[in-house]
Write a structure and sequence with these properties.
The complex is a heterodimer of chains A (about 160) and B (about 625). Chain A is α+β, with helices and mostly antiparallel strands. Chain A is built from seven helices and four strands; from the N terminus they run H-H-H-H-E-H-H-E-E-E-H. The longest helix of chain A has 14 residues. Chain B has 25 helices and 19 strands. In chain B, the strands form six sheets. In chain B, strands 12-11-15-13-14 form a five-stranded mixed sheet, sandwiched between helices. Chain B has a four-stranded mixed sheet with strand order 2-1-3-4, with helices on one face. In chain B, strands 9-8-7-10 form a four-stranded parallel sheet, with helices on both faces. Chains A and B meet through helix 2, helix 4, helix 5, helix 6 and helix 7 of A and helix 2, strand 11, strand 15, helix 18 and helix 25 of B. The complex binds flavin mononucleotide and FE2/S2 (inorganic) cluster.
């Protein structure tokens, strides 16, 4: 994957001029590219004058940051308490089996990422799955299957075969 | 909307606004909280606007449509309330909109969308008498269903910022503190520290630079009242912060808010800029000598950042690790300056106390715990939602009168109160009043109001394992007892759930748990063992069943259950066989199928698919 170094540098520069912190610069980059390329950490540490070790510490401490690129389709399964009690572990299990991924992983072809999140504040509809930013509520293994199949079909894949 | 230069001007503007905001004017409110949005409330709102403005109907309607914050009864969303009558419609879909509008025009009611009380089968028309609302006392959430959160003028028309004018016109900072102290308000972020006293400590610190912070990190997974307040009534939080900052002598405030709450962030940013435009934030607020600004800081997803010292480190741009206290933030907080940090609900209570007086506020609640508390009732409960109640009501009232009891005729097993730092309360203690003192004596805590209901199908060992996994993952790793201790406890619990428990595991869990509580650096570690210790206190028999008999009584723990076909019920329809992800089911059409326990990964898909009750768990 081509790393857009110039663009990243501009983001960091802008934050630096605003007097912004390392975290806000990294948040900007994470939002734009959905991960923090290695180069971004190095650039941020140089431009903002913080040790690279600290940039790495911040990048690995907060859940919002990822050091690996995310897949084209991102599934987030809520594992908050309300969703847990209503059966999110079974849903997660099922999706893990279907995608052949564990939570937190991205497929080699960068097609799918599977993540868990803690409470999205929609507990009344749990278990919740967010697919590419779109919420689906009252999930179970069967409904999650339908959800997956729709995306497989759109991508011309048939994981059932 | 323009800059308001004095309290007198603001009051005059309010008087003007009230004329056009008659409380009895015809109004359709659509809940636009995060929960209802997941159900599609935005589309419903748009449909109302379209139908009413197009008037493709034969009638003309002088109704306004408004998208409000969370009404609280999330279970029944999207919620639509027709005012002033207060007719409440549940699960409203786009297709229902024309029918509702026609019914309003004809003075009728759409019966099929009304709420039906599951306990009595009674159809209830009016929002106020739905048991979920009737038994609440909505003090902080009172305006959530009425306000358009994006409009400051509505908040002002409904009495907003009148507490601020009162303070700036007639109260010294000391008087404000005295009033808050007299109200008996205790911090709603978990620890329950008296708010007025905290302000006083910060005010009395030397130094010109002081800060106030609103803690909107709301990390308890399964609680979302702070989110609903910020989404539904952001100005009340700001008003509370301005008053508090005035009392303390701070000129800069921060709201530290979770990144996972995009709508709340949006509404808050909007509210801040409106308040700035009106001269309610910035220099010389309402023409006084007083300056105050508020900035937003986004949390990046770390539970421990809700802890005050970690939160401060995070705002400073560091890794969000807590540090030992003292010094407390009121002595040395943000960039080493005296800092007062309060929870969203604490800040939101302030304008109400100033407006209605400390006597009024302290008349709600119990001897030692004043005011109201908002609970998010979730899990195995009929009426999932947010309920605001006077402190001191019983858990029984909360679960049965407001929460509507347990769905599917299951039995209540336990209520986990206080989130991952809290403990569970079993059926025998349901009548206990919910206040700081009684909960602590039962091994739970008030926490920030998360209330998760577990029914008979919940395995308490697995439940405890769940919370331990959460805190173990969220432990920042700075102190050894929390980092290693939670890991050790989690591994033990995982072993027990996998059917590999050993006879001394329970003693080990208690010993390690006590040690973590005593020796951890911050509240995260000091409370992390609570869910395990309290389930051990009340459900020790379940632990013993797992460890000694190698069974999971609730049939949840995968290592201890097997799926099998009930031969007499199985018609041989092939559905489970075709869908089994591990190919563990064999058989043929119209022949009884068989599950191979070796291949079966216990996902339970077959059970959820089978229409003939032909799958059982043992
Ligand atoms: C691990 C941990 C997480 C916390 N999370 C929150 C939170 O999400 N929101 C909150 O207001 N307080 C939280 N607190 C409590 C804060 O440290 C602090 O006591 C509180 O914000 C003070 O406000 P109050 O006096 O209004 O309650 C947390 C504490 C700990 C130890
Ligand atoms: S626990 Fe999943 S949305 Fe709250």
């Amino acid at each position: 994957m081509q790393i857009p170094i110039v663009e990243i540098y501009e983001i960091i520069n802008k934050e630096a001029r605003k007097g912004g912190s390392l975290i806000s610069a990294l948040e900007e980059i994470q939002t734009r590219y959905r991960y923090l390329p290695r180069e971004a950490l190095i650039l941020a540490s140089e431009r903002l004058d913080v040790p690279l070790s600290q940039a790495y510490a911040v990048a690995t401490f907060y859940n919002a940051f990822s050091l690996k690129p995310k897949g084209k389709h991102c599934f987030q399964v809520c594992v908050g308490t309300a969703c847990h009690v209503r059966g999110s572990p079974q849903v997660l299990d099922h999706i893990e089996t279907k995608l052949g991924l564990k939570a937190g992983e991205t497929s080699h072809d960068h097609m799918f990422s599977l993540e868990t999140v803690n409470c999205l504040g929609a507990c009344a509809l749990g278990p919740i799955i967010v697919t590419n930013g779109e919420y689906s509520g009252q999930m179970n293994a069967k409904k999650s299957d339908t959800l997956l199949r729709r995306i497989f079909r759109a991508e011309g894949l048939d994981k059932n075969e | 909307m323009s800059n308001i230069n004095s309290s007198v001007e603001l009051n005059a503007w309010r008087a003007e606004l009230i004329k056009s905001y008659a409380p009895d004017r015809p109004l359709i409110t659509v809940c636009g909280g995060t929960g209802c949005r997941v159900y599609g409330s935005e589309k419903v709102f748009n449909a109302f606007q379209e139908v009413i403005s197009n008037q493709g109907l034969s009638v003309s309607l002088a109704y306004n449509v408004k998208e409000t914050g969370c009404h609280g009864f999330c279970e029944k969303g999207p919620l639509v309330v027709i005012r002033p009558q207060g007719t409440m419609y549940t699960h409203v879909k786009v297709g229902d909109v024309p029918e509702i509008v026609t019914a309003i025009a004809e003075g009728k009611i759409v019966e099929r969308l009304l709420y039906i009380d599951p306990q009595t089968d009674e159809v209830i028309q009016n929002e106020d008498i739905v048991p979920f609302y009737k038994n609440q006392q909505r003090v902080i959430l009172d305006l959530n269903g009425l306000l358009d959160p994006l409009r400051i003028d509505e908040y002002i028309a409904l009495g907003g910022y009148s507490a601020l004018t009162k303070v700036l016109q007639s109260m010294s900072p000391e008087q404000v503190i005295t009033e808050i102290k007299a109200s008996g308000l205790r911090g709603r972020g978990g620890a329950g520290f008296p708010t007025g006293l905290k302000w006083e400590l910060c005010r009395n610190q030397p130094g010109d630079i002081k800060y106030v912070i609103c803690n909107a990190d709301e990390g308890d997974p399964g609680a979302y009242m702070d989110r609903s307040i910020m989404e539904g009534n952001p100005h009340r939080v700001l008003e509370g912060m301005i008053i508090g900052a005035y009392a303390i002598g701070a000129h800069q405030g921060y709201v530290y808010i979770r990144n996972e709450y995009p709508l709340a962030v949006k509404h808050l940013i909007h509210a801040i800029s409106q308040a700035e435009e009106c001269g309610l934030l910035g220099e010389n607020i309402l023409g006084s000598e007083y300056d105050f600004r508020v900035q937003i800081k986004l949390g990046s997803g770390a539970f421990v950042c809700g802890e005050e010292t970690a939160l401060i480190a995070s705002i400073e741009g560091h890794v969000g690790e807590p540090r030992p206290r003292p010094p407390y933030p009121s002595e040395s907080g943000l960039w080493g300056n005296p800092t007062n940090i309060n929870n969203v609900k604490s800040w939101a209570s302030v304008p109400i106390i100033i407006d209605k007086g400390s006597d009024w506020y302290s008349s709600i609640g119990t001897e030692t715990s004043k005011g109201t508390m908002i609970f998010s009732i979730v899990g195995n409960i009929n009426n999932t939602g947010l309920a605001e109640v006077p402190i001191g009501i019983s858990l029984h009232e909360l679960i049965y009168d407001i929460g509507g009891g347990i769905p599917n005729n299951k039995a209540f097993k336990a209520a986990q109160i206080g989130g991952p730092s809290g403990g569970c309360i079993p059926a025998e203690h349901l009548d206990v009043p919910i206040d700081y003192k009684s909960l602590t004596s039962l091994g739970a805590i008030m926490g920030s109001g998360g209330l998760v209901i577990a029914d008979e199908d919940t395995c308490m060992v697995d439940f405890a394992r769940y919370f331990m996994k959460f805190t173990q993952e969220e432990s920042c790793g700075k102190c050894v007892p929390c980092r290693i201790g939670t890991k050790a406890m989690l591994e033990t619990l995982e072993r027990i759930c996998a059917g590999e428990g050993q006879s001394d595991d329970v003693e080990y869990l208690i010993e390690v748990g006590q040690a973590i509580k005593l020796s951890s650096l911050c509240g995260l570690g000091q409370t992390a063992p609570n869910p395990v210790l309290s389930t051990l206190q009340y459900f020790r028999d379940e632990y013993e069943a797992h460890i000694l008999e190698k069974t999971c009584p609730a049939k949840v723990c995968k290592g201890l259950i097997t799926y099998a076909i009930v031969a007499e019920n199985c018609p041989g329809c092939m559905v489970c066989l075709r869908n089994c992800p591990s190919g563990a089911i064999t058989g043929a059409k119209q022949e009884v199928h068989v599950i191979d326990p070796e291949l079966c990964n216990r996902c339970g898909l077959c059970m959820s698919l089978c229409k003939f009750d032909a799958i059982m768990v043992t």
